[in-house]
Specification:
The complex is a heterodimer. Chain A contains 18 helices and no strands. Chain A is mostly helical. Chain A has one domain. Chain A starts with a helix and ends with a helix. Chain B has a four-stranded mixed sheet with strand order 2-1-3-4, sandwiched between helices. Classes of the chains: A mainly alpha, B alpha+beta.
Chain lengths: ~350, ~80
């Protein structure tokens, strides 16, 4: 844009960004490599035996807090920069022109890539539906966004390894696609709130595309870090606190009884506990790490994590503005079925 | 006198956006009337899908995230 050309400081500021971002990345990487000695040193300062319950819990906590915060910062920054190439408006334009059957997987994919926060899911929902995007495709988008978000995947990769992160990605993506397809087949348009249906033929706003320079994109990434890390750090601490308690105090035999693969009811129980729990991916993954470490079955743990992240009550309350109660109930039932199926499948084959 | 509308459900970023608009207008010496639109129906009618959204004299100029300060001045002085 022409406004930028008049800024005399622009050139020098750009250099700061081009040098500063790689320098910060190297610094974070070096710090990340020192976390084990650091956490062992901090733990040794406490007057407890290292191999006692309390010592184990403290070690888990002081290792995971800096680790998760560093990973989170890196992931949110990279995601913020990448997402500056995407917008809900572009996504809508892509989806509106597609045949319905391709719409589902594409919507799941774009749900992961498109920046949106749950506070704008209502205008986004209406924007999609009023542009003629089928209801089921819109649901695929709304399920995939939170469920297979980069924060969750990145932290899974860093805390429990690439195998489980990949399984989570594949099954999260499949659930979003299939659940959207099933919901689309059910012909649920009549359960939209009346004013939403009346709006279907309404106007669709046109927004001129904003032109970003690379530095603008880096700034957007940093803004995301400030906003998201500033908002979720408390959930991270709570999640790691719970994870540390599990890691230090819960006996393995008890974990096997409650969340082991033998107990068939553990999967539905995990979903029933997970849905009303309100946190986010960054808060739940340290708990997942501790559960798996204590021998909880993978299927049960996946089901727990998916239901915490993908189905949250506050989001349902927001969607109540546009969906009748019946549609919300059907939505929860379909997504929960997909999660249950995933949980049972993994408990059966592993 | 420009009429500026800020679309958003009342999140922290919407408040910040409103303040940025008032500050930019004061800096430029432009008279503005800032109106906050919080209900979903009006947002949908204006074509806002990501919040905060900004319209100036009825024309949508921005949606999603905080506006860039330099661009904001551009919209207000255009």
């Amino acid at each position: 844009m022409t406004i930028e050309a008049h800024d005399p400081h622009r050139g020098t500021q750009d250099w700061l960004w081009y040098l500063g971002v790689p320098a910060a990345a190297v610094a974070l990487y070096l710090v990340y490599g020192q976390l084990i000695p650091f956490s062992e040193w901090v733990t040794s300062l406490f007057p407890v035996a290292r191999d006692s319950h309390t010592g184990e819990a403290i070690a888990f906590f002081v290792y995971d807090v800096p680790k998760v915060l560093l990973l989170l910062t890196g992931i949110v920054f990279v995601t913020g920069v990448l997402r500056s190439w995407f917008s809900p408006e572009k996504t809508r334009a892509i989806l509106a022109g597609k045949r319905e059957i391709w719409g589902y997987p594409l919507a799941s994919l774009l749900g992961v890539l498109t920046p949106f926060c749950s506070c704008s899911s209502v205008p986004l929902f209406i924007g999609f539906v009023s542009a003629g995007i089928p209801l089921g495709v819109t649901f695929s988008f709304l399920i995939a966004g939170p469920m297979v978000g980069p924060v969750g995947l990145g932290l899974l990769y860093g805390l429990v390894g690439w195998e489980i992160a990949t399984i989570y990605l594949v099954f999260g993506f499949t659930i979003a696609t299939v659940a959207g397809f099933v919901l689309g087949r059910m012909g649920l348009e009549r359960y939209l709130q009346d004013w939403v249906r009346e709006l279907n033929a309404g106007p669709v706003g046109d927004l001129p595309e904003e032109q970003f320079t690379l530095v603008d994109r880096l700034k957007l990434g940093l803004e995301q870090v400030r906003e998201i890390v500033g908002k979720v750090w408390i959930w991270v601490l709570i999640g790691i606190g719970i994870g540390a308690a599990i890691h230090g105090y819960v006996p393995e035999a008890m974990m096997l009884q409650i969340m082991g693969g033998e107990a068939w009811w553990s999967v539905p129980a995990a979903v029933a506990v997970g849905v009303p729990m309100y946190t986010n991916a960054a808060g739940v993954i340290p708990i997942v790490e501790a559960l798996l470490g204590k021998g909880a079955a993978l299927g049960t743990t996946l089901a727990f994590m998916m239901s915490v992240i993908a189905l949250s009550l506050p989001e349902m309350i927001i969607l109540k503005q546009v969906l009748k109660f019946r549609l919300i109930a059907i939505f929860i039932a379909v997504v929960a079925s997909g999660i249950l199926a995933t949980g049972f499948l993994f408990n059966a084959i592993l | 006198m420009k009429t500026v509308k800020v679309y958003g459900p009342g999140c922290a970023r919407c408040e910040t956006t409103e303040k940025m608009i008032k500050d930019a207008a004061a800096k430029l010496g432009v008279e503005v009337e800032v109106e906050k639109i919080t209900d979903a129906r009006s947002m949908a009618m204006a074509g806002v899908m990501s919040t905060p959204g900004i319209s100036v004299d009825g024309k949508l100029v921005h949606a999603g995230g905080l506006p860039d300060a330099a661009r904001l001045e551009g919209w207000l002085s255009a």
